[in-house]
Amino acid sequence: MDRKLLDLLVSPDTRQPLALLDGAGLETLNAAIAAGGVVRADGSTQAQPLREALVTRDRKQVFRVEDGIPVLLAEEAIATAQIDGFAGK
């Protein structure tokens, strides 16, 4: 993802800056997705593993990136509190 674009991105609801989710965080998130335990803010299940994601500064929300395009919709945010072992909770 382009660094200049990343510097401009913020969470749609908390307005916190976003950063690329590190490999360990992505691995933990995808393991929880595979186990069927990840729900988005709108109540829908996140069924597909993520190749790339953005995380808020406080690491409480994750937003998926699809084909290089951030999906910054508050209703599609993934709360990290539901993910066991997510670093920085």
Describe the protein.
It is a single chain. By secondary structure, this protein is of the alpha+beta class. The chain contains 2 helices and 5 strands. Strands 1, 2, 3, 4 and 5 form a 5-stranded antiparallel beta sheet that branches. The model has no long low-confidence stretch (mean pLDDT 92).
Descriptive keywords:
89 residues; alpha+beta; five-stranded antiparallel sheet; 2 helices; 5 strands
Compose a concise summary of this entry:
The protein has 89 residues and is of the alpha+beta class.
Topology record:
Elements: H1 3-8, E1 18-20, H2 23-34, E2 53-56, E3 61-66, E4 69-70, E5 78-79
Antiparallel strand pairs: 1-2, 2-3, 3-4, 3-5
Q: Share of helix among residues? A: 10-25%
Specify the oligomeric state. Answer: single chain
Overall residue-averaged pLDDT value: 92
**Class per helix and strand makeup:** alpha+beta
Distance between the termini: 25 Å
Q: Low-confidence parts, pLDDT < 50 over ≥5 residues?
A: none
